[in-house]
Here is the input.
Amino acid sequence: MIKKSPPPPPGFLLRHPAHLIACGFGSGLAPVASGTFGTLFGWATYPFLRGLLPDDTAFAVFLLLAFVLGVTSCQIAGRNLGVPDHGAIVWDEIVPFWAVLLLTPAGLVWQLAAFLWFRFYDIVKPPPARWFDTRMKNGLGVMMDDVVAAAYTVLTLAVFKAVVERLL
Here is the structure.
């Protein structure tokens, strides 16, 4: 069994702006299931962000900038925590899950399905996610394995949607 590093103290968030971002504004400090808490943070903040950026193109540009910011922030936080993909780093769950929600059919049931599938793929790490997770020990690798989980999630939802529409 792999021993996980304990979450850093709350003061860690304030030592550098990258720490606050990488740790999902504190959502990554959960003592268990920090990735799930980060994804929940992403889900909870998505409606607010969509209110600020209702245009899909503007939101996509925001996601790209949040991704680039995440690569840098996760790199700095991982270096300062001594573990490249420390459990407290959850920005890599948040940004890809925002992208998933952008592409998810409307409705709470679809969003719940997106949440469950995203968590599944993030935990299982199907190829090439596992490659990024094990071989790229830097901010880009931290972000990319969750981008892959997001892509699998969107594909799974698209298949389910096609099946549901065919049955109806």
About this structure: The mean pLDDT is 95.
